Amino acid sequence: MPRKFHITNILGLQLFQVLRFVSFLIISAVFTRTELTKKDIGDFELLLFLASALTFFWITGIIQSLLPLFNNNSSFVQRNKLQKSPELYNAFLLLLFISFFITAAGFILKDEVAFYKDGHPLPYATPLLLYIFLSSPSCLNEYIYLLYNKASHILIYGLLTFTLQVIFAIVPVHMGFGIEGAIWGLVAVSAIRFIWLLILLKKYSVPKVSFDFLKELIILSLPLMLSTLLSGSSQYIDGLIVSAKFSPEKFAIFRYGAKEVPLVVTLASGLNNAMLTQFASIDKIKYGLLTLKKRSLRLMHILFPISILLLFFSDILFHVLFTRNFVQSSDVFMVYVLLITSRLIFPQTILIGLKKNKVVMFTSILNIVLNIGLTLLMIPRYGIVGVAVATVIIYVIEKLVLVAYNYFKLGIKPTDYIPVGWYVFYSSLITLIFVLIDHRILVVRLY
User: Fold this and answer.
1) 115 in Cβ contact with 66 (< 8 Å)
2) What are the phi and psi torsion angles at 262 (to 5°)?
3) How far apart are CA 181 and CA 244, in angstroms?
4) In this structure, are residues 353 and 292 in contact, taking their beta carbons and an 8 Å threshold?
5) Residue among 443, 310, 329 nearest 389 (CA)
6) Domain boundaries, the chain
7) Nearest to 398 by CA among 365, 355, 353
8) What is the distance between the alpha carbons of residues 21 and 120, in angstroms, rounded to a whole number?
9) Element of type H or E holding 120
10) 3-state class (DSSP) for residue 380
11) Which of 156, 321, 341, 403 is 20–30 Å from 293 (CA)?
12) DSSP code of residue 84
């Protein structure tokens, strides 16, 4: 009999991340074929950029701290995992509180902040802030399904909501409401996700406030928030520099190019988050390491070949997807392809799962210091492409530092969780091909 296809939690979360990426890719591609100007597209990309920059670090910190704490904390008596969870309710309250604080601060300061080279005021601030308020807590939805082992529900939820996202963003533009209509469409979808979250909380959570658990969650989250902010801030610092020094049109070109390979971030992030529960206790470590090694090798066999192909056809793809107006973005994209060399090793997963978030935080501090220094050195000579090169180099250094810590402090060998031979082979191959395809990319200027 043929083997029945089964969606695991890891696969479900990875597919969800893929759907998220594809939905925004479709929206971006369609916008370039409408009557929208580059300035309109630049404004839209700026809003998505700001929404992510203001939320990514604390959402990641709370979610990744919640996963190992679920049914494994000192505040609640352990229970059957199928029972309703007071942890989820308290995590929701924390997410909601921070979302409200950011939204309120945003309304107060929205007229005080300027962007772009000409001091352009923040466009469409009201729908942006409503989008942040509604969408941030809703990130809990897919992880509720993950924690209750409902992988197929993650996929169904993703298919429905991301399909609506594409429709609600594109249709208003075609109806003549412009970019503002698209942004309000995203707000509407976020409202649907928020209502979905309330329904899930009623089904899976216990409305019991615990200040002890909130304290435990915050203490565990804070170093992870800071480390995520610092390690992930390089792309946002890059974006802020471009938004400050260039026009909306140039910002749009940069943002369209400053994308990693489709699937790499989504699948790597999905694997990282889904594996955190495997390192929540000492007795699971050996199995978790083996699983992490197998899963990461599987991703390498899939994603490195795809990335290499994209290096060969990046110019053509950008012409087809985004029209000839954005072919220049492919120069930046080709450098970002190389980020795969840091994405597909997972020393941070082990450390976060073992609740050693301070180690990740201090490594991220090193990341940001080195990144700022190297970026300042690269910009005068290589321009915007140099910013991307600095990012790639620093991300590799950060992962190597974490690998070294796992080995020297925890006694966990790289070979225990990294398929080292395949990793070295693929990383060397893609770097060599990158140089051979376009050794001149380091001198390309996008001014």
Assistant:
1) no
2) -50, 135
3) 26
4) no
5) 443
6) 1-231, 259-447
7) 365
8) 28
9) strand 120-121
10) helix
11) 156
12) -
3-state secondary structure of 110: coil
- Whole-number Å distance between alpha carbons of 314 and 296: 25
Which residues, in sequence order, are CB contacts of 134 under 8 Å at separation 6+?
A: 187, 190, 191, 193, 194
Residue 328 has pLDDT above 80, yes or no: no
The distance from CA 344 to its chain's CA centroid, rounded to whole angstroms, is 14
Q: For the CA atoms of 420, 5, 274, 414, what is the dihedral angle to 10 degrees?
A: -10
H helices present in 110-150, as ranges: 125-138, 141-147
Rounded to two decimals, the pTM is 0.70
Contacts (Cβ under 8 Å, ≥6 apart) of 81 = 71, 147, 148
Mean pLDDT lowest for which of 144-158, 192-206, 348-362?
348-362
* DSSP states of 241-286: HHHHHS-HHHHHHHHHHS-PPTTHHHHHHHHHHHHGGGGSSGGGHH
Whose structure tokens read 């229970």? 79
Report yes or no: 14 and 271 within 8 Å, Cβ to Cβ: yes
Name the 3-class secondary structure at 114. Answer: strand
Give the DSSP H or E segment for 121.
strand 120-121
Q: Which amino acid is it at 88?
A: L
DSSP code of residue 442: G
Phi/psi for 120 (5° steps) reads -60, 130
Residue in the block written with tokens 């109806």: 175
Highest mean pLDDT among 260-274, 277-291, 301-315, 350-364: 301-315
Q: Say how far apart CA 261 and CA 308 lie, in whole Å.
A: 10
Question: In a 3-state reduction of DSSP, which class is residue 115?
Answer: strand
Compute the CA torsion angle 242, 245, 249, 255 (nearest 10 deg): 0
* Amino acid at position 59, single letter: I
Contact indicator for 311, 430 with CB cutoff of 8 Å: yes
85 forms beta bridges with 205
